[in-house]
Design goal:
alpha/beta, globular, binds pyridoxal-5'-phosphate
């Protein structure tokens, strides 16, 4: 891996950029370990932190961003509608080509990508959208935005993904759409969701906000469903601060999405030619500035995806050997995980520590980690949202009571929220040695679990 991003590349990437000093690191963050390694005394008990290096900042400048942003700025080509630089058009073409999709529509956020997809599919009041409870709140909000009813159904504890069998059972005559989320960038079971969508004549929309360049069999994530929705927010594997993209192979749907995001105006219409016909439209356009950043950021996106895949699979092997550590399972059709998050569970009995003590101890070793999503009470959340005047007219108490009964208690979701640990994608961008340092830190904590538990 380390030769993929040579020092020369880094110098080229950072050279001449005044702001580079604010970015703490080069692409491969080469960590160093304290001498004692996994056999040393845990840092939480007073030992030397296992990681003696520093993780670099994300995003990482690739070199062309400054030039391209300044070109947009100085030439006054700020708006995609009349830009001679065609930055947004270029981003759309490149992103579609990279994913072997027929169309890409750039928007201003991942949330907008979901909202525009559902607008174009004419999902509205009374329609049910089946989705995962283990997701960022935007997934649920995008459904509520259309006054449709989100139906969160339970996850597969092993994979962290929406459970296809639960989704199938939750379908009613009001179900219009399946909205699996490729959480962490790992593919949901797209064979199963495609089969259910086909059999039940439902739209399949992929929340691929975390899943750039992930792959299911021979297709990229986001190109299996009718649309795939991506976030380009700053934490994501491809970013411009805030932004989003929608992929689809359907010509008519692409045009409808374009209209939805552009106040009913189609791709071919000029500024003064208003043609209507989209379901619900607003302005969710991407600016030329955002696209300029994205075009610069895309330079190493494929190499980064490969590095994350190699390192993620390696870390899976290393961590699976440690008692009580359970890396998220990948489904058989997975040909590449996008690894937006490296996700695993801590089994308290097997490991000998509860998750809270584990993450404290891991942070003491200077390995940053998160406990991920909290167990949001989605039933309460939706009830509160639809307590509004409009909401209660559309969804009377009886309707919501029946719905709440169907949603049930989501036991796997709750358990997952209590056991999950995440690493962020940039931690998988260094050399293999970095994975060994992470695994050694976890091993050191596990070996001393009894003592840490007492401390
Ligand atoms: C980030 C994210 C979104 C929303 O994207 P924004 O660009 O922040 O609007 C939606 N769904 C999931 C799963 C996400 O991770």
């Amino acid at each position: 891996m380390s030769n993929k991003f040579s020092r020369r590349d880094f110098m080229a990437a950072s050279g001449g950029i005044g702001l580079a000093a604010a970015f703490s690191g080069l692409a491969p963050m080469v960590l160093t370990a304290s001498e004692a390694g996994a056999d040393g005394k845990p840092a939480v008990l007073g030992g030397t932190p296992l990681n003696q290096g520093a993780y670099s900042h994300w995003p990482i400048l690739q070199g062309d961003e400054e030039k391209m942003v300044l070109e947009v700025l100085k030439t006054g080509n700020w708006f995609r509608g009349d830009s001679r630089l065609h930055m947004v058009d270029r981003f759309e073409n490149e992103y579609a080509a990279m994913n072997k999709a027929k169309h890409c529509i750039a928007v201003n956020s991942g949330t907008s990508a979901l909202v525009a997809s559902m607008a174009a599919l004419e999902i509205g009041p009374g329609d049910e959208v089946i989705t995962s409870p283990y997701t960022f709140i935007a997934t649920i909000n995008s459904v509520l935005y259309h006054y449709a009813l989100p139906v969160p159904v339970d996850v597969d504890l092993e994979s962290f993904q929406l459970d296809a069998a639960c989704a199938d059972r939750a379908c009613t005559s009001d179900t219009r759409c399946l909205l699996p989320v490729h959480i962490g960038g790992a593919p949901a079971d797209l064979d199963a969701f495609s089969e259910i969508a086909k059999r039940r004549e439902l739209d399949l929309v992929e929340d691929a906000c975390q899943a750039h360049l992930g792959r299911w069999r021979d297709k990229n994530l986001g190109t299996v469903g009718r649309t795939g929705c991506f976030s380009l927010q700053v934490s994501k594997n491809l970013s411009c601060g805030d932004g989003g993209a929608i992929l689809t192979d359907d010509d008519e749907l692409a045009e409808a999405i374009f209209k939805c995001h552009n106040n009913c105006r189609g791709r071919s219409t000029d500024s003064f030619d208003f043609t209507y016909g989209a379901a619900r439209a607003t302005n969710q356009r991407m600016t030329e500035f955002q696209a300029a950043v994205l075009l610069g950021q895309m330079k190493n996106i494929e190499a980064y995806a490969e590095t994350r895949q190699e390192n993620g699979m390696y870390l899976n092997r290393l961590l699976a050997e440690i008692p009580g550590v359970i890396p998220a399972k990948l489904y058989d059709g997975t040909t590449r995980n996008a690894w937006h998050l490296y996700m695993f569970r801590i089994d308290k009995e097997g490991f000998g520590l509860d998750r809270g003590k584990f993450t404290d101890a891991l942070r003491a070793e200077r390995i940053p980690c998160s406990t991920g999503y909290g167990a949001v009470d989605w039933v309460d959340f939706v009830r509160n949202t639809y307590a509004s005047k409009t909401g209660s007219r559309l969804y009377p108490k009886k309707t919501l009571d029946d719905w709440a009964e169907r949603v049930g208690t989501l036991p796997n979701f709750k358990r997952l929220c209590g056991e999950a640990v995440w690493f962020t994608q940039n931690m998988l961008l260094g050399p293999k040695k970095n994975m060994e340092i992470i695994a050694d830190a976890v091993r050191r904590i596990q070996k001393n679990a009894a003592e840490i538990a007492k401390s």
